[in-house]
């Protein structure tokens, strides 16, 4: 059995062994019940540790490729409901798809394109203290269901924060959710049906695309420019298709990092009034901005904007707490869908977030995050420029840069990244149709890592070694 393990690769041996064994089973077309080499034999043949072989076999058992028979060994499993020995379905677009960023098997790689902050940037001690305080409180907060709109104490804190942004709302206009993705799901379930057409930004948020596709909703693509959605194309799509909804990031758009200009925001609202359009404003990066910013919700005088945000990016990805803001009638409908589909949200998580907001811990935490991100943004832009990378736009905040290296496609960049221990987030993941792209989303919070710097420099050096075009 030749598995060709490569100890020079950044990919861990256990992952290589798992993938090579899976491929070997598929290419040999082994029948269910075929016995695989013993752990001892595979250790000797491949020159790896016993624990490496055991973990690889265990992974293949959990994936359904093998079955373990106590005291006998490992055997090819019958893969019911699937074509015999079909390739393991990939998450996202290919083996390097968007969902690979979330895999526990990639912990040794630097996730340069991920959508969250490093764990050591978070206020772990303060969060732990808030959790202990809630745990010592009323039993209902540990074991009870949350109310349909969310805890009153949380919604009061959210209302105060919205007022600081210039968004004035009543308590009945706020709905707590399990993060921004849950908010989007509630909106799609409530407002749309299969066959409906909506406007989305391109490039944009891949999970929104997946959600719309899941519900059979057609996407009309509006290119994202430095100032916001391309208004000419938007107008043409409105004229032709008359869609009812537009999904948009106003501030630090994902993935380009760009923000709405005042002129674009005003024109968007004018078009919304002219075409009876409602705008869903995803402001998940709201707290990365200090001071005035252009938001559609602050300019909306006709209640055409539905606003949503979350604390998951700034506090913890495990504290799934977000919120929706809309007219009271729509909030009541969304709350009903929320209860039908999930019987509420986490009362405990909402208590923890409310505690952090009310104590001032959250305010101090985001102030530190803004400063740190600003430093890393400046550093990342300098590094990219020094190594010949092209930037779509220079963001004035947030954590994303949309960049590419002239003349290098993703497969080329991916090869170099793997050699440096870096996991990339491909541009195709941010395209509504998954089309190939040479653009990459870079999270500046990770760009100072030596592996990221080595990757950027290696790409630049590769370009220098290219022979001139004849």
TrEMBL record:
Keywords: DNA-binding, Pyridoxal phosphate, Transcription, Transcription regulation
Pfam families to which the protein is assigned, alphabetical: Aminotran_1_2, GntR
SUPFAM superfamilies noted in UniProt: PLP-dependent transferases, Winged helix' DNA-binding domain
Residues in HTH gntR-type domain copies: 11-79
Molecular function (Gene Ontology), one example: DNA binding
Record CDD domains: AAT_like (cd00609), WHTH_GntR (cd07377)
PROSITE patterns: HTH_GNTR
SMART domains: HTH_GNTR
Family to which this protein belongs: In the C-terminal section; belongs to the class-I pyridoxal-phosphate-dependent aminotransferase family.
Protein name: Transcriptional regulator, GntR family
Organism: Pseudomonas japonica
């Amino acid at each position: 059995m030749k598995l060709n393990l490569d100890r020079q690769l950044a990919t861990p041996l256990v992952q290589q062994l798992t993938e090579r064994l899976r491929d070997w089973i598929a290419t040999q077309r082994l029948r269910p019940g075929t016995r695989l080499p013993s752990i001892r034999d595979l250790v000797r043949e491949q020159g790896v540790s016993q624990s490496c072989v055991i973990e690889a076999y265990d992974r293949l058992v959990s994936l359904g490729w093998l079955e373990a028979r106590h005291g006998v060994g490992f055997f090819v499993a019958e893969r019911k409901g699937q074509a015999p020995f079909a390739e393991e379905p990939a998450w996202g677009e290919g083996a390097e798809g968007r969902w690979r960023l979330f895999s526990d098997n990639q912990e040794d790689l630097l996730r340069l394109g991920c959508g969250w902050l490093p764990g050591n940037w978070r206020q772990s001690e303060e969060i732990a203290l808030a959790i202990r305080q809630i745990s010592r409180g009323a039993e209902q907060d540990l074991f009870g269901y949350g109310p349909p709109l969310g805890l009153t104490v949380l919604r009061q804190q959210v209302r105060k924060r919205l007022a600081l942004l210039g968004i004035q709302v009543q308590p009945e206009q706020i709905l707590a959710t399990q993060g921004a993705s849950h908010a989007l799901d509630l909106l799609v379930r409530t407002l749309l049906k299969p066959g409906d057409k909506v406007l989305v930004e391109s490039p944009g948020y891949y999970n929104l695309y997946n959600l719309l596709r899941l519900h059979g909703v057609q996407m009309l693509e509006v290119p994202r420019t430095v100032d916001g959605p391309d208004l000419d194309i938007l107008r043409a799509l409105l004229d032709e298709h008359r869609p009812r909804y537009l999904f948009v990031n106003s501030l630090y758009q994902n993935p380009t990092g760009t923000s709405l200009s005042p002129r674009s925001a005003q024109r968007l609202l004018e078009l919304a009034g002219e075409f009876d359009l409602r705008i869903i404003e995803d402001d998940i990066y709201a707290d990365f901005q200090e001071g005035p910013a252009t938001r559609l919700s602050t300019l909306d005088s006709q209640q055409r904007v539905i606003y949503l945000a979350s604390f998951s990016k700034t506090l913890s990805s495990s504290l799934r707490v977000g919120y929706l803001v809309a007219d009271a009638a729509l909030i009541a409908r969304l709350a009903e869908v929320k209860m039908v589909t999930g019987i509420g949200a986490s009362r405990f998580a909402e208590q923890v977030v409310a505690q952090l907001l009310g104590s001032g811990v959250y305010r101090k935490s985001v102030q530190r995050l803004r400063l740190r991100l600003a430093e890393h943004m400046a550093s990342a832009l300098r590094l990219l420029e020094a190594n010949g990378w092209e930037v779509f736009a220079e963001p004035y905040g947030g954590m994303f840069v949309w960049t590419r290296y002239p003349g290098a496609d993703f497969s080329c960049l991916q090869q170099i990244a793997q050699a440096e221990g870096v996991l990339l987030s491909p541009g195709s993941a941010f395209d509504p149709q998954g089309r190939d792209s040479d653009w990459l989303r870079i999270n500046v919070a990770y760009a100072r890592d030596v592996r990221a710097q080595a990757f950027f420099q290696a790409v630049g050096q590769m370009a220098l070694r290219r022979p001139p075009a004849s």
